[in-house]
Amino acid sequence: MCLGLPMQIVEIQGYLARCEAKGVQRDVNLLMLEHETLRAGDHVLVHLGFALEKLDPDDARDRWAALDEALAIDGAVTTGGRDA
Questions:
Q1: For the CA atoms of 43, 60, 54, 11, what is the dihedral angle to 10 degrees?
Q2: Which of 14, 7, 8, 10 is nearest to 29 (CA)?
Q3: Contact, 72 vs 65, CB < 8 A?
Q4: For burial by CB atoms within 10 Å, which of 9, 15, 68, 77 has the most?
Q5: How far apart are CA 26 and CA 11, in angstroms?
Q6: Is-contact 42 3, C-beta < 8 A?
Q7: Which residues share a beta bridge with 12?
Q8: What tens digit of pLDDT does each residue of 22-47 get?
Q9: Which CATH architecture has domain 5-78?
């Protein structure tokens, strides 16, 4: 299974962007979105260090909400519903 994470662009230098999500920053390659107009503050879907898709802020928020919910469920299943 492949998992893309929504991240917000902090800074762009050529085809490389510094992106942030949940307090973590990563360098992301923008080459696959070379025909998109991207600016600091925009959201992108990132997989394996590459931005695959430009997202609107509501879509990015909704995707994180779904990921957070899945992680919470997985944590409850893994710990048997107990606090770890």
A1: 10
A2: 14
A3: no
A4: 9
A5: 11
A6: no
A7: 17
A8: 999 999 999 999 999 999 999 999 99
A9: Roll (2.30)
Q: Grade residue 3 by pLDDT with cuts at 50, 70 and 90.
A: confident
Provide CB contacts within 8 A for 5, sequence distance 6+.
Answer: 21, 45, 46, 47, 67
Tokens 């949940």 found at: 22
> For residue 2, what are the CA distances in angstroms to 10, 38, 47, 76, 80?
24, 24, 8, 22, 26
Sign of CA dihedral 76, 80, 83, 84: negative
Residue with the two structure tokens 């800074």: 11
